[in-house]
Amino acid sequence: MVKLLHSIRPARAGDARAIAAVHDAAWREAYSGIIPGKALESMINRRGPAWWTSAVRGGSRILVLEFDGKLVGYASLGRNRVSAIPYAGEIFELYLAPEFQGLGFGTRLFAAGRADLASKGYFSTIVWALADNERALRFYEKMGGVEVWRATERFDNDTRARVAFGFAAN
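and the corresponding structure tokens:
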């Protein structure tokens, strides 16, 4: 039996460079061909190490997943930002470095995010995904999510549909 050497913990300011690297690689892999190139580059470039340092120091709730001592994923979470949707918590982002996708780490990070939210009293959860990101849609459906809302997001001159998945209280 193979034992995976991974851990999930709250992010520290010293993780900023590694989180930025995961963000960069994961967003390029997930959104190339979905988000227009110029908008995608701008979004990635805004989220460099300084941005992540500021987010962690500012109290943003970010969990990181390490594998064999290397940071390979992150999730950011907190209170649901859309009051019209009756779910308490929200996983704002959940990304893994591309080479760690499809290995079960996303499931572990998702479960840790939900548990963290529940520990703060947020027992139900929503997660948004772009409707064109079929991998994300399949993942959240597999996790038991039910589509509860649709909206649009603007990227430069393009508009993309996005889907909110709801997860009932555990």
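(Above: one complete record from the training split.) The mean pLDDT is 96.
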